[in-house]
Amino acid sequence: MSPYAPYWEACRRGELVIQTCTACAHRIHLPAADCPRCGSTALTWASVLGHGTVHTFTVVHRSFVASHRGREPYTLAWVDLPEGVRVFGSVVGCAPEDVRIGLPVTLTFEDDLPVWRPA
Amino acid sequence: MRQELGGRAAVAGVGMTALSRGSGRSELELAVEACRGALADAGVGTADAVLSYHMNDSVGAVQVARALRIEPVGWHNDISGGGTQCASILGDAAMLIASGVARTVLIYRAMNGRSGKRMNVASIGPQEAFTVPYGMAGPIPLFALAAQRYLYDTGLTEEHLHAVVAQSRDNAAGNPRALRREPLSLEDYLAAPFVSTPLRNVDCCQETDGACALVVTGVSRAPDAPRIHTVVRGGGSGCSTMDVADDVTRIFSGYVAPRLWDESGMSPGQVDVPVLYDAYSWLVPRQLADFGLAEPGDIGDYLLKRAHARVNPHGGLLSEGYVHGLNNVAQAVRELRRAGGVALVTGFGGSYGSAALIERS
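Structure tokens for the assembled complex are given below, as produced in the milestone run.
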């Protein structure tokens, strides 16, 4: 089974989950079949608290994904979580020009996808 | 010479088609024209080995060898990859020469990068499972995310990115091959549309139809040609692995530059011609700092003073065109033929890539 499957199942429940290695306690995301640090395959899933900080972002003005053409501008970001991982998503609920590196954000869901809005 | 391949092989010939946005020709026709040009320029007759690199958007080495009547062909290979390969393919060729496996190596890159398969939707790897649902695909938003953080970390602004692009246009002004030759004022730069912030369309290289070819042979066959001195290739965590990277702005040069100086025994001050992979404007200051060609703390003033005017004297990928970096290597050869010295050429593939030093005394 793809290591991604439990992740997407959780999204449909409205949860953002990340993996923890039971051998070395390393937190893992993007989802993996084994721990990138120690190689253990004994990984568990747990929900995150749901807050984070924008590490970097871009406002897409010209999309290269057919389903998103006509929806520009929209904002994409990598978000640092206090759990020790970085997750990818969009930033919603504010004007693109208000997004900044360091912006505190809170988890929400749109169409079963985890997205972020200003905290 | 710390690498055994060093000083054994020389770039004896350069060939290029016209660059355009609609060649109306097949990749095979483009490749054959560039290869014939390079072989004629080298004056070595034929080649016994053929190398190319591509992303399933081109014509294979066997077909090109047959079209050139290189039959039977010796060592031939299609290397998977794009810009990351444009410097290290000199190393692949030099290794074949230095080891005695081949005598003369023909290298080409042929693409209809504007009218055919375009790079702006090229795969960026397994992380796409997580990015495409949000509307992110292709290299531009990926390297825009890195660029945004790079500007934040360094304090550089759009004024500095303008200095990179405007200098590229100025350098291309006298280059008849260049797709963009007109001056670019700050006002015009700021008015250019964003593709993915902070990258405007003018911060991205020219999608190009065309082909470029090089002939690499033993130094005894081409004693006056620019010699391949040192070639390095490598990479690691950085802008290609933003999920885990400590520094999402790190590009290949952070990995290969220390090895280049160590394995060559040369220093940044010996470089006369820096030919840097400029698929995006911000890659120029990032590489200038990584390779030790400019002080990292001084890079903003350096750009505004246009101290980078000697970088990419033909206008680079931003203005001449984008034959996946092989046209940059061709320009390094032209510069060394004209004035001698040491050229640095680089190949970018996110946080993986390559660099080479070539020299002619």
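Chain A has two domains: 5-47, 51-118. Strands of chain A lie at 17-21, 27-28, 43-47, 51-60, 74-80, 86-91, 104-110, 113-118. Further analysis is deferred to the final report.
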